[in-house]
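SECTION: protein entry
WANTED: fold as tokens:
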Amino acid sequence: MSSNRKGKSAARREPSWAVSLVPFAVLTLSLVVVIKIFGADALSGGSQVCLLLASAVTAAISMALYGNSWENLENCILDNIRSVGSAILILLLIGAIAGTWMVSGVVPSMICYGMKIIFPPVFLAAACAISALVSVMTGSSWTTIATIGVALIGIGTAQGFDPGWTAGAIISGAYFGDKVSPLSDTTVLASSSTGTPLFTHIRYMMITTIPSLCIALVIFLTASLMHHGADSARTAEFSGALESSFRITPWLMAVPVLTGILIVKKVPAILTLFCAAVMAAAAALVFQPQAIWAVANPGESIASFQGLSFWDACKGTAVTFYGSTGIMTGNEAIDSLISTRGMTGMLNTIFLIICSVTFGGVLAGSGMLRSLTEIFARLAHRAVTLVGSTVGTGLLCNMVTGDQYISIILTSSLYKRLFEQKGYEKRLLSRSVEDSATVTSVLIPWNSCGMTQATVLKVPTLDYLPYCFFNIISPLMSVCIAAVGYKIFRTHPERPSATDSGSPVQEGPRP
């Protein structure tokens, strides 16, 4: 009888915070090895294997030392996977939009119109603004930097700007769009990981994001006005190359305008993204038949286009949604710009999400997540310390794990229960995670984002880091807004298990 009671008591024990750190140590060490071996390609599968390995270690410790059952751990994993089901569908639609908006000429038109404002006295500010605009339209900082960013680096060099300054302006703008665009996978991931509706998350982020971007733009504009350089002939050359491959017309702006209207009308994200992709596909058939033909006939130059048959139209449109849109235009920069992978391009991210939520589910089911959260709970007694801890954890996860996706999910998992316990809204957590995990990833040399952008722009991470003003200001702005208590509300009083004396936040329902 006594032995039985002891067994039950052991089964009810939870891991200490020291034991709870073991899976993170395993994850960190394995990620270091994987990133060393695969570099930027670690997201193609290596990082996912690391997450599954850490999940296995967590499950083994929980079952062997603390009497947990596999059934309980499996249920927690399945619950987590169910929670990101809609996010996976959204990611697939984002992939479809990446292809349709590019092939339809929507993004090329935005680039052409934006390029017309570039000249030395405003170059850095314009580079930041254009990168932000393109990133909002595409939802991808990586695509923006690898296409228009590369062109802007060349333009900046021709005008005599330091590559670090130019790269900082490009990255600042690109990560602004990556942070607020409904097409961004990190935005979708942050909102879904915390259980916040996508557009609620985006609107709430504007409180910290817009001031951060405005400050960055002022700095870039001041630096541009103090610089004297050459003309912007390379800008005209790039615009001319786009115009020779696509029909650039203001009518294409109807697609993003109508998408914006759907967003304002609060149409569900899945329906909005589906409509945006369909509208762009229709625009492609009307305005860019040569591009649709080239997608349907890979390997053929767009200059060979003589007409679009019914079957080529069907095939090209379908491939634009799900597959590679590599089009041969005869211009290497344009070929790189319009090359997307559609829905298939999102499969690695979906693979990563499933493995990450598996790790999060095992952590929660084992009680390790609760043990770690209790440590943070002792430190976070006010809104500003809670947000500050979240922001600091996001940065730390980027440094430790080397990947922003993993950092977003881990930070969300660590703080989700604590925010609920303290009575703060989910949107405050999702914003704090984005203000840290998303934007700081590119500032770390060994992070997948830092490595990738340094390679693409040919500017070392530590060279552009001091000039990524948006990425540096965003985490600080998040903490400052929390200190002021602006638009920070509670959904319910704090639960008795924790204290929150002296909180400066406003009490009451959300406006």
In short: Residues 155 and 233 are 8 Å apart (CA to CA). DSSP finds 26 helices and no strands in the chain. The radius of gyration is 24 Å. The first helix runs from residue 2 to 12.
